[in-house]
Amino acid sequence: MAVVPVARPPLTLAERSYLPQIAAGLRTTWRHLVRPKQTLEYPEQRPALPPGYRGVPTLVRDPHGREKCVSCQLCEFVCPPKAIRITPGEIAADATTAHVEKAPKEFEIDMLRCIYCGMCQEVCPEEAIWLQNQFSMTGTSREEMVNRKDRLYELGGTLPDQHLKWDRKAAAEQAGNDLH
Amino acid sequence: MVDLYLSSPSLVQGLLKGLAVIMVIFPIGGACSMAERKVSAWIQGRPGPNRAVVPWVAWIPVLGPFLQRLGVFHVMADGGKMLFKEDALPGHVRKFYFVLAPLVAMMPALTTVTTVPVGAYLDAAGRAVPLVLANVDIGILAVFAVSSLGVYALILAGWASNSKYPFLGGIRASAQLIAYELSLTLSVVPVFLWINAPGTPGTLSLSRAVEFQSGVWQGFSTASWGGVWFLFLMPVSALVFLIALFAETNRHPFDMAEGESDLVGGFHTEYGAFKWGLFFVAEYAHMLIGSAVFTLLFLGGWNPLPWVPLATLVDWLTVLTPLAAHPIAVGLLSIGIFLGKVLALVFFFMWVRWTVPRFRYDQVMELGWKKLLPLSIVNLLFYLGAIAALTP
Fold first, then answer.
1. Which of B47, B354, B356 is facing A22, going by the closest CB pair?
2. Chain A within 8 Å of B351 (Cβ-Cβ)?
3. Does residue B116 contact residue B134 with C-beta atoms inside 8 Å?
């Protein structure tokens, strides 16, 4: 590419006096002064969170109120900072969801360790753990910062998915049994 | 009340006047610090401090939330904090001078206020009588003489702090003051030469300068120009004075003495709590007095508009209500107009601060010695010639 010499004209008197530049700067700052403010007033105004936001990890129930976690412990194994601790438990044989067999007896996420990476959500085969929109997590003690099972379900709520995997599984099993 | 005041010994009168000055300057200084924070916030697209509120003020329907949004109570919170936090005295400072410096900073700031007229009322003869604590005839000279002492506080603080950044700040402050004091004074000389034209009684009084700018429109003639604000008569003087004022008050873009980014806090690096607060208030007091002097000399003082002196405005208002001619009403009106101009100028100081980046130190010196000083001398010579030519 050819070299293009750029003409550098000497500064004019107005430019050297610096005053027109200051006037232009004052005009710019005045525009900023009168135009609407850019910041959110946080506790009252909340930011609009984009879809796919990774907030505090939570556990969810399906539309029938069944807890979706089957305590396979994949999230516990994948969790890079080892924030998740699961104590697996059995589902009682007389329960309507007895064919699911397992559910967590205890499920703890230590929010002092959690790095909000979302790997637990990615790895979960049951779509039971979700990083939702809560971004402000505070507490006054270490114990308070550990989310236990009841708290996790309280934060998570219900996932309105309609595929109802385990209900269909039970139905298919029933249908197969009926054939024979 | 008035009789009790007039019959009291002069020492008591002086004390009352001093208290009045303190009671006025400190709140205005506080309000200015708040305004600074608000203006900076607005220019940066933020709402600024707007949370602190006194409960029973918050209960007032519209006014309470408005004052809260304006951040008025943050001033009190800040002041209270500054007053009650621990006043640490570093071990390596020269204690006597270290404590003396903030006091030396406050003294010229509070003293100059007394010689600055803040308004006027019309006496029975229709002459404007200035409202001023100490109506000295040397007016501008007293202001300049005392306000330049303010830099001693900076030098003292820089030296007594016994550490390198304050020391550099103090040195910068002294060099800068010498550089700009000359142009500041020289830019004012044409104004007072104009006022003290041959054949008139000599005066350096600031209120006389305002009186000179109280002319009325007399058609397109030199007579009209004689009574106009000095801003229009001597624009170069006004410009040089304003720039030198920025430098004198250590405001951006000339705040070499503080220079947060290169000198930590400059001369007040080692100060904290109320001693630091005194420096802060002194800076705003200097700014206020500088703006007041600029208003008096170039912006027509308490005259509302060019060619519309206070007396004309009062005449117009007496058409509406005869009450407007009462000396107290006129006095309050003039104080309002004057204060409005001064505060607008203070806003301009803040506006410039958040617009223009700080000069490099050698640029400050070059601007002061090589640009402003020759410019003010040429300006002075020009008006010397003009006055000589106009004098019959």
1. B356
2. yes
3. no
**pLDDT tens, residue by residue, B340-367:** 898 899 999 999 988 888 888 888 888 8
Residues of B in contact with A25 (CB under 8 A): 355-356
Which of A11, A39, A42, A45 to probe the B interface (max B CBs under 10 A)? A39
Residue type, B292: A
Contacts of B57 (CB under 8 A, 6+ apart): B63, B64, B67, B68, B73
Encode pLDDT of A90-134 as tens digits.
888 888 888 888 899 999 999 999 999 999 999 999 889 999 988
pLDDT bracket for residue B1 (50, 70, 90): low
pTM equals: 0.81
**Chain A contact probe: residue of B37, B39, B40, B44 with most A CBs at under 10 A:** B44
Three-state SS sequence of chain A: CCCCCCCCCCCCHHHHHCHHHHHHHHHHHHHHHHCCCCCCCCCCCCCCCCCCCCCCEEECECCCCCECCCCCCHHHHHCCCCCEEEEEEECCCCCCCHHHCEEEEEEEEECCCCCCCCHHHHHCCCCCEEECCCCCCCCCCCCCCEECHHHHHHHHCECCCCCCHHHHHHHHHHHHHHHC
Minimal-distance CA residue of chain A relative to B44: A32
User: What b/e sequence results for B94-124 when a residue is b if at least 16 CB atoms lie within 10 Å of its CB, and e otherwise?
Assistant: eeeebebbbebbbbbbbbbbbbbbbbbbbee
What does the pLDDT read at residue B253?
83
Picking from B39, B46, B352, the nearest residue to A37 by CB comes out as B46
Nearest-5° Cα angle at B210, B207 to B215: 140
Q: What are φ and ψ of residue B130, in 5° steps?
A: -70, 145
With contacts defined as CB-CB under 8 Å, which chain B residues touch A29?
43, 351, 354-355
- The interface pTM score, or ipTM, of the predicted complex is 0.79
Contact A14/B at CB under 8 A: no
Give the tens place of pLDDT for each residue, B27-83.
888 888 888 888 999 999 888 888 888 888 878 888 888 888 888 888 888 888 888
Give the chain B residue whose CA is nearest to the CA of A17: B371
Q: What is the pLDDT of residue A141?
A: 93
Closest CB to A39 among B45, B352, B354:
B45
Q: Residue A30: list chain B partners with CB under 8 A.
A: 351
For A155-171, give one letter per residue: b (16+ CB within 10 A) or e.
bbeeeeeeeeebbeebe
Asked whether the beta carbons of residue B42 and residue A33 sit closer than 8 angstroms, the reply is yes
B5 touches chain A (CB under 8 A): no
| Residue B283 distance to chain A (closest CA, Å) | 23
Q: Which residues of A touch B354 (CB under 8 A)?
A: 29
